[in-house]
Amino acid sequence: MSTVVMENLIKTYSGGDKRATDDVSLEVADGEFLVLVGPSGCGKTTLLRMVAGLETPDSGTVSIDGRDVTDLPARERGLSMVFQSYAIFPHMRVRQNIGFGLTMRKVPKDEVDRRVKRAAELLQLSEYLDRYPAQLSGGQRQRVAVARAIVVDAAVLLMDEPLSNLDALLRLQFRAELKRIVSQLGTTTLYVTHDQAEAMSLGDRVAVMREGKVAQLGAPLEVYDRPADQFVGGFLGSPPMNFLTARLRDGALAIGDASLPAPDHLSTWDAGDVVVGVRAENIQVSSDAQPGWVPARVEVVEPTGAALLLTVRLADEQLKVQAPATFPASPDQAVHLRAEPSALRFYDPSTGLALTTR
Question: Whole-structure pTM over 0.85, yes or no?
Answer without folding.
Answer: yes
